[in-house]
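Entry 14. Ran structure prediction on the chain below.
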Amino acid sequence: MDSADEMTDKKPDPKVAYIGEGVIFKGELSAPELVVIDGSVEGEVSARCVRVGVSGSLKGTVTVTDADIQGTVSDKLEVKQLLIVRATGRVDANISYGQLQIEKGAVLTGELSSTDVRSKGEHITQRAKLTPVANSTPTPPLELKRAGGSSAS
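Output, structure tokens:
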């Protein structure tokens, strides 16, 4: 079987949206499972998981369960569970996440909000203002504030 036959026999996953390198998409993009962005997307994105490749850029409102960022994301990023920002990743947005993993070299700018649901239904929000830091300046301290009341039982 030659490679042309192999490509026509392979069916794409119907639950995955793929924006290839060099492709520009503007508008609302929704997928039940995964959105992979190696090109450029501007608008609203919703899916279970979004993956922004090294060459990918995403500008707009993103609402997902999990995110893996290697490229650029800006505006608003809401990740209900795990947000991973890789070494090549650059996020300049209002970020809301459940869990956060940041590799050395990643850049985060904007407002960072962690929502963590603890036992007894207590809801804790931590907020931090992040600003870019030049390599020659010391790292500024993060301001963490608890939002909402926590009751002691």
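The longest helix spans residues 3-9. Will compare against last week's run tomorrow.
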